[in-house]
Design goal:
heterodimer; A: about 325 residues; mainly alpha; ABC transporter involved in vitamin B12 uptake, BtuC; 2 domains; two-stranded antiparallel sheet; two-stranded antiparallel ribbon; 14 helices; 4 strands; about 75% helix; about 0% strand; B: about 240 residues; alpha/beta; Rossmann fold; six-stranded mixed sheet; 9 helices; globular
Chain lengths: ~325, ~240
């Protein structure tokens, strides 16, 4: 492989890194606390969305219970802090592993049934988790949920303060974006795309389809797990309803609106869905209606999501020009025939 | 020399329908064997059971002496049996070169020299090197068939099963395909073709096996099989 083709994938990462660098500069403009809170929530979602993009964009599997994976790690972090006095940085890997294991437990039976059934199974597991948490008594705090206290420190500095937490979340989003990019451009990513395109053919070429599908779900679980710990420590309080069906549908919606296959997609989807109601001044009911309309519009008009649509439009613009020129050049030879 | 693939008593029932009724078939190392038979005679079912797409109802399949009966498709592929589908297939949304790359990445670690060490070499072999940058989904049908062949070859099989490889191809494309398939034994790849196109089979195979209603009714040198009254009876009305 020559240097040119090795650098090409790097170029696809560059725009995201530039955007994230700009986003990291936002605190310089002294934004309001409300803005920062919204941005942190959006960033935490984006981390989970990068996992979902590996699952849905690359492997072609849609999870409608993804918030449950976020919830498992959020609760794991809260319980670890309460019962074992474990802090943020230890909870982070442990809770991420907990989400990954939960993903495997859901994935093994669910992925035996293909396609649409998987969507329903993940939805059911998501609901199941919410029911279990609600009925978990004092251990899970029942419907009220759990508090999670304790400062998050980084190199001895307290990062619980809003601006610092914001910057930390941006850093995590960057790591998630790079990780997702690395997966897309690895041979593992190619394997997942092969499964998305044609499972039967993939199996005939020696790909263990079932294992890789579960693997992709587990990988997406790790992203969801990191997202969950950040969420728990950000909110300071978690409850079952945050991880039930509606949040799961929102996550799927965000990844579809942004576009699951391109590296900018999760970032765009997460930011758009978080800030749209704010910008348009919508109440929760109105925003649900708008999301619904957005989803239908994206599915019908932009199958690759907003970012995919923009890329296609730009390409079409340039290709259109090139085509016109080519046609002009070809015209005389056509006439001769 | 023991056969590369030894099928014995292989049967498959779908509900009450018997698709294979105890077939015995040996594929010898280095040959191009043809399996023919009218529609519904069990040819594709035979392939599907050998390649693990369907679990057999009875019988055994030995690949180089190893029992591979009922293994999963990916395990059969990794054991060294490649196959192409009756419906030409590729990963439509991915690039032609990426298609071949993927196919090569899960190949077994073969001890023998690989005749096509890179995806590009394989595309050269099947004559698609100019189309490496295209999406597989936009290929014309004939090229798609060739890509399917390249994908199967990328898994470095020692036995290649081709299910109606020339279906839908024009004469020129068929001739090109025949030229490619004939080279395979020279690269250490044994071939088994199923088709009902007798002209194609006569071009490709020195030995034919004939299936009818899930049973083997003839097996031997192509000329002898085509002169067999039982075979003529099955194909009565067909142009032999």
């Amino acid at each position: 492989m020559n240097a040119g083709s090795a650098l090409k994938p790097l170029r696809s990462l560059l725009p995201v890194l530039v955007i994230l660098a700009l986003i990291a500069l936002v605190p310089l403009f002294s934004p309001s606390n409300r803005f920062l809170s919204l941005a942190i929530s959006a960033g935490i979602n984006v981390i989970a969305l990068y996992g979902l993009s590996v699952l849905f964009g690359q492997t072609g599997i849609l999870s409608m219970g993804h918030a449950a994976l976020v919830g498992v790690s959020a609760y794991a972090a809260a319980i670890l802090a309460r019962d074992f006095g474990v802090g943020f940085w230890v909870a982070l890997p442990v809770a991420a592993v907990a989400s990954a294991i939960f993903a495997m437990i859901v994935g093994v039976p669910s992925l035996r049934v293909g396609g649409h059934h998987f969507v329903i199974m993940t939805f059911a597991f998501g609901q199941l988790l919410a029911i279990v948490l609600t009925n978990g008594g004092d251990y899970t705090g029942a419907a009220t949920g759990l508090d999670i206290a304790g400062p998050v420190t980084l190199f001895g500095a307290d990062v619980t303060e809003l601006t610092r937490y914001y910057l930390m979340v941006v850093a995590f989003v960057t790591v998630a974006a790079v990780a997702s990019w690395a997966i897309i451009h690895s041979s593992y990513g190619r394997t997942l795309r092969a499964i998305r395109e044609n499972e039967k053919l993939a199996a005939s070429l020696g790909i263990n389809v079932g294992r890789h599908k579960i693997g992709a779900f587990v990988v997406s679980g790790v992203f969801a797990g990191v997202s969950g710990v950040l969420l728990a420590y950000f909110l300071g309080h978690i409850s079952p309803s945050q991880f039930s069906s509606f949040p799961s549908i929102y996550l799927a919606l965000m990844v579809m609106i942004g576009g699951a296959r391109l590296i900018e997609g999760p970032l765009a989807g997460g930011i758009l869905v978080a800030f749209l109601p704010e910008v348009l001044n919508l109440d929760p009911v109105q925003s649900r209606i708008v999301y619904g309309i957005c989803l239908i519009a994206v599915i019908m008009l932009l199958p690759d999501g907003l970012i995919g649509g923009i890329v296609r439009a730009l390409r079409g613009l340039f290709a259109g020009k090139a085509k016109q020129e080519a046609e002009r050049d070809a015209a005389p030879s056509e006439a001769r025939r | 020399m023991s056969p590369i693939l030894a099928i014995s008593g292989l049967s498959k029932q779908f509900g009450g329908v018997t698709a294979l009724a105890g077939v015995d078939l040996a594929i010898e190392e280095g040959e191009i064997l043809g399996v023919v038979g009218p529609n519904g005679s069990g040819k594709t079912t035979l392939f599907n059971v050998v390649t693990g797409v369907h679990k057999p109802s009875g019988g055994t399949v030995l690949f180089r002496g190893r029992d591979i009966t009922g293994l999963a498709p990916h395990a059969i592929s990794r054991a060294g049996i490649g196959y192409t589908f009756q419906q030409a297939m590729a990963f439509a949304g991915l690039g032609v070169l990426e298609n071949v790359q993927i196919a090569g990445e899960h190949a077994r670690a073969g001890g023998t020299a690989n005749p096509w060490p890179t995806p590009q070499a394989l595309l050269d072999f099947v004559g698609l090197s100019a189309l490496g940058g295209e999406k597989a989904g936009v290929l014309p049908f004939g090229s798609l068939r060739l890509l399917g062949l390249a994908l199967a070859l990328a898994t470095r099989p020692s036995l290649l099963l081709l299910d109606e490889p020339a279906a839908g191809l024009n004469d020129r494309e068929t001739t090109a395909l025949v030229g490619l398939v004939r080279q395979l034994p020279g690269h250490g790849i044994t071939v088994c073709v199923i088709d009902h196109d007798m002209k194609l089979m006569q071009m490709l195979c020195r030995r034919l096996a004939v299936l009818d209603f899930g049973s083997k009714i003839a097996d031997g040198p192509t000329e002898a099989v085509l002169a067999d009254p039982k075979v003529l009876d099955v194909y009565l009305g067909g142009d032999l």
